[in-house]
Amino acid sequence: MIRLLDIQKTYDNGTKALKGVSMRIDDGEFAFLVGPSGSGKSTIIKLITGEVHPSGGRIMVNGYNLNSIRPGQIPYMRRTLGVIFQDFRLIDKKTVWENLTFAMRAVGASPREIRKRIPYVLDLVGLSRKEDRYPTQLSGGEQQRVAIARALVNNPQMIIADEPTGNLDPQRSLEIMMLLEKINELGTTMLVVTHEKELVNRFSKRVIAIEGGRIISDETGGYYNNEETL
Ligand SMILES: Nc1ncnc2c1ncn2[C@@H]1O[C@H](COP(=O)(O)OP(=O)(O)OP(=O)(O)O)[C@@H](O)[C@H]1O
What we know:
Elements: E1 2-10, E2 16-25, E3 30-34, H1 41-49, E4 56-61, E5 64-65, H2 74-78, E6 81-85, H3 96-105, H4 111-124, H5 140-152, E7 158-162, H6 170-185, E8 189-193, H7 197-202, E9 206-211, E10 214-220
Parallel strand pairs: 3-8, 3-9, 6-7, 7-8
Antiparallel strand pairs: 1-2, 1-4, 4-5, 9-10
Helix pairs in contact: 3-5, 4-5, 5-6
Bound molecules: adenosine-5'-triphosphate.
Adenosine-5'-triphosphate (ATP) is lined by residues 11, 13, 15, 17, 35, 37-43.
């Protein structure tokens, strides 16, 4: 569960990126986080992953209180999260299998666990037959599927996807979003940052809308359906 309580974030140069944001995402939920450029979406993601610290307010991430977390606990908090980015961030010199192995070894998984888990996640994302390919030998949609597999391989409680379809065409984008929906249905909490209205509107999910560092609406079915509130 993610809980933000009256979060303020002022960057060192004085930019007030968040001006009192409160939100709660329960285990098992699927939520879109939408808003114009500069509204504070990435700042919220970075607060959740512990990359930036709030200037005020309280934040809880999957049982960890980020206001009082000890530095040594941060890697354990991060293991509860799988993060996916617009630009995939795969290791080009490693095959699909090696990219996933690398992520599992980083958390101390045994060779036996690795041999068991990787085929499962590759099957889930529909890439079972491409485990020996290098990322450059895959399409953009396939590379994003590998990134999703990597985010999932250590079985996180929650996936945070930051503009996961930003580099993909509409059909590939829809397929990736349907995959995230399927993964959510299997039990992983999902927070998806996007500005793609059409895509958000195809899914009847919770939509948290942020503008100017404040949440301006939070409802199921979509803020983008209520253009008059803009
Ligand atoms: N490291 C930083 N130092 C100073 N200001 C920053 C920093 N990072 C972000 N900002 C500012 O904070 C505000 C919120 O930025 P943020 O990146 O959270 O927006 P965003 O909604 O993710 O935008 P985009 O959709 O363009 O990625 C913006 O005014 C931005 O310029």
